[in-house]
Amino acid sequence: MSGKVSKAQRKINNKYINDLKKKLAASNKNKEERHVLKPQTDDESEDELKKEETSTDPTEEEEANLKKSFKDFGLKDDILESIESLNYDKPTPIQAQSLGPALEGRDIIGIAQTGSGKTAAFAIPILQALWEAQTPYFACVLAPTRELAYQIRETFDALGSNMGLRCCTIVGGMDMMEQARELMRKPHVVVATPGRLMDHLENTKGFSLRALKFLVMDEADRLLELEFGPVLDKILQIIPRKRTTYLFSATLTSKIDKLQRASLNNPVKVAVNNKYSTVETLIQTLMVVPDGFKNTYLVHILNEHVGKSIIIFTRTCAHAQNISLLGRILGFSAIPLHGQLTQAQRLGALNKFKSGDKNILVATDVAARGLDIPSVDLVINYDIPTDSKAYIHRVGRTARAGRSGKSISLVTQYDLELILRIEKVINMKLPKETPPKNEILALHDSVDRASAEAIRQVKQFHSNRKTRR
């Protein structure tokens, strides 16, 4: 791919993308929706971006009436003490808008980006209600991924530390019998992935959610993308109709709208910065990479950011494994996180990165949503995501809570169409940065050798596993 795209070529590319969208829109129009929670496709979500442009951020008058302190909400002293110990100075915008109606018993649909403080926004009113009547299986929180479920559990444990909270995590990939024993201890809050929760509802004797008071669906857009719709339907049929329900999502689409109509009762909608965009403190750039030089460019970037906290996103598990190994061969402190690792390995990788034991996390999009990693200096898109939403969520790992951050996308000649789509969605042209040619050439041979060694080691590992079987 050359450094510049001609006006004629850009026009052709834009025409191709627009024609493709028209065909997809026509195709989607002719399809009947057979299920209220049918998973949403990337193309449907991109067609609906315009719907998300209507902001419901508070007006100046409404903002003046928002609570400025957690004490203003009349929370129990035990909860306020936990909030203070966690150094929550004041409510975040999503907390300031949602806590009032939530504490009054209203259903909530919250639209907020990752890192906005939405976990505490639904945990605090649940704990406030639980303080009055500590009954088993009081609340259930559904999350799309195991990692997010564990992090939600951590937030509940921290906020409920002064009130004897019992909380358990029920996710796939872990021992069913051990989870059944946890459920028999009658926890107040169950944090679960939908599939494994349904397994226990159907198979674990003595476990029931018939007395459930609160249901939370976190990252609801992701729940639908991962095809949990039919399972959610089953869960909604089992649990009591008379309950309080909170639905939180990073985006608002027609599928989310149908889900909230199927599960919420006259909800209060709160939205914070729900335009489909990236934060102002994020510097976004791209590097145009010649064929065969992607790993060299990557290593050059890592050399320029030694000691920084970095997430490298790849499209496949194999790429994540290879790039992590390449980094270690070249002396970088890298660790992989992807779906082919065991649950224990994934949690171990995440904890090592969060603690600073490893400063480079090489991840597939399993790590792009909901993970509570407060300080990331740089995000590198080794592979450009095929879905523009995934780009937003990837780069959202940095420049959080007002801090500055940077993302760099490695772009080959095959990524032109994807980059044009992303630029259209975020409404900006990504500036190009070009590393010194002599530095790239000086690195290339050693990186090539290390890449070959990484591939050899991965092949040897898989060969040894087959032999042991």
UniProtKB/TrEMBL annotation:
| Helicase ATP-binding domain mapped to chain residues | 99-270
A Gene Ontology biological process in which this protein takes part is: rRNA processing
CDD domains hit by this protein: DEADc_DDX47, SF2_C_DEAD
Q: Enumerate the spans annotated as Helicase C-terminal domain.
A: 297-442
InterPro entries according to UniProt: DDX47/Rrp3_DEADc (IPR044765), DEAD/DEAH_box_helicase_dom (IPR011545), DEAD_box_RNA_helicase (IPR050079), Helicase_ATP-bd (IPR014001), Helicase_C-like (IPR001650), P-loop_NTPase (IPR027417), RNA-helicase_DEAD-box_CS (IPR000629), RNA_helicase_DEAD_Q_motif (IPR014014)
Compartments annotated for it: namely:
Nucleus
Motif Q motif mapped to chain? 68-96
- Region annotated Disordered sits at 23-64
Query: Which Pfam families does the record match to this protein?
Result: DEAD, Helicase_C
Q: Does the keyword RNA-binding apply?
A: yes
The cellular component terms of Gene Ontology attached to this UniProt record, alphabetical and capped at eight, are: cytosol; nucleus
What keywords were assigned to this record?
ATP-binding, Helicase, Hydrolase, Nucleotide-binding, Nucleus, Ribosome biogenesis, RNA-binding, rRNA processing
This protein's major location comes to nucleus
A molecular function annotated in GO for this UniProt entry is: ATP binding
Q: Which SMART domains match?
A: DEXDc (SM00487), HELICc (SM00490)
Q: Where is the DEAD-box RNA helicase Q domain?
A: 68-96
As for family, the record states: Belongs to the DEAD box helicase family. DDX47/RRP3 subfamily.
What is the protein's name according to its record?
ATP-dependent rRNA helicase RRP3
Organism expressing this protein natively: Pichia kudriavzevii
